[in-house]
Amino acid sequence: MIISASISHAEGDTWWSGNIELDSLAAFQRVQINDPVSVELGGEIFSLIVDSKTIDRSGVGKPKFTVALVSPTAMLASPRTLPLEYVWNDPVYAQDAAEEAAGQAIQWDLVNWQITGGLLQFSGAYAIDVINSIAKAAGGKVETLPDGTLHVRPAFPVSVPDWDTATVDQVLTDTSDNLSCTEAHTSKIVVDKVLVRGYSASDSGFLSVEVNPYCGQATWYAGDAVPLLVFTGRNVSSVEALASAGYIVCSGQIHQNVVEQKLVFTNKNYATLDKPATSLEYAQWIGNSLGSLTLEDDGLTVTASNSGVAIALVRYTIRATAYTWYSPPSSTTAAIETISISSTGVVTMTMGMSTVPVVAYFRATTDYSLGIGEIFCQRGEGLHRGADISEPLLTSTEAKLARGRAELDSNSLLQTVSITCIHRPGFLLGQLVEVHDGLMGQSWRGKITSISHSASGAKLTTTLELQRNGQPAP
Length: 474
Known about the structure:
Blueprint: E1 2-10, E2 17-22, H1 25-30, E3 36-41, E4 44-56, E5 64-70, E6 84-88, E7 92-93, H2 94-102, E8 106-108, E9 114-115, E10 120-125, H3 127-137, E11 140-144, E12 150-154, E13 170-173, E14 178-184, E15 193-197, E16 207-211, E17 220-221, E18 225-232, E19 236-243, E20 247-272, E21 277-286, E22 293-295, E23 301-326, E24 335-336, E25 338-341, E26 346-351, E27 354-366, E28 374-378, E29 389-390, H4 397-410, E30 414-422, E31 432-436, E32 443-456, E33 459-469
Parallel strand pairs: 8-12, 13-31, 15-29
Antiparallel strand pairs: 1-2, 1-32, 2-5, 3-4, 4-5, 6-10, 7-9, 11-12, 14-30, 15-28, 16-18, 17-24, 18-23, 19-27, 20-23, 21-23, 22-23, 25-26, 26-27, 30-33, 31-32, 32-33
Helix pairs in contact: 2-3
């Protein structure tokens, strides 16, 4: 017989977990690790397995027999399974790949998009990690239903702006359900615009400066004009250049050259060029081949058809704008032996035994334009842009939109509320709940992010954590 039981599930966890206390040693001994267990709480049945067993003899009374439980989906993770290699060389739909990794059917309520062959490759990964990676790419959550079925759903099944008008899944009232309600202030940075791209991009605001290596001159003197090359990313619209000694001017001349680089792929399908390229002129694999190479729209990212560990020799065309630094004059005619420019814009020139630092300030202005494989997701005026999302698995517009919507929803003005109520069956993560509670003064709506059931004798309660909108529903 069970003396007490508690079971809970929260977003970020993949399965239910809990404990039951048994009343006898005989019952405790019959239960073995990984045994299937069905627990009924208030008419709702939870399919679980035994995670661990504990005997506590520290009290003055009889020993306490506790059994820890988890959902059977825990069998897809360490330590109950071994890490494996997962490779899909051919195009595959997200749900098909996830179910193949799980070895079982999944209730899939997330967008189901086709992923390009070769992008899905996992080395030494557990099945549950593969499923989580696929779902997370499109803004999804992986959880377990009470009957033990894996469930993949959007992080917000109902988008936050639609909460006030959508049909709710549950209604809780002061008169029949709510026992307590607690709300704490949650600081939040609201995001209403986000860029989503289907590849792992480098910084498109790229800016670098170097002494022109093609000018045919290696030695300058104080007061000489030193030629510089300024390299910019795709979205840099203008560059301002200042110096603490001497002065810098832009000639406007464009230099174009072909350079060579060894690109290293470290179990990924993308690598980054040293400088922005306008085109790839030549590519050759040294050893392993990952297929064809593509220069992405940021001019810095090169993607291969497949993931893996490999090296590619590439030649690519670079473009730079010519600037000239008129170095400060000196009382001597000593030659400038070396000139170096750091990533922070400090120019150092060495004249004989003397090192003279100069701060050269280059400031880039960016004016973003969408490239191939990129979309903006925006609500309202889009004045608060969040961090860009670069995810190679997002190979369809529908999947990018799903990820963007999840990002905007999760960065809405949401408050966390904890409610303890009389137990009722049917609560699930992600459900939309309408609450009538005196703490708020009126009805409000929120999404369930955590569920905890507790049973002791005849007393059966549920504690929910919900995210509610910043403004209560009318």
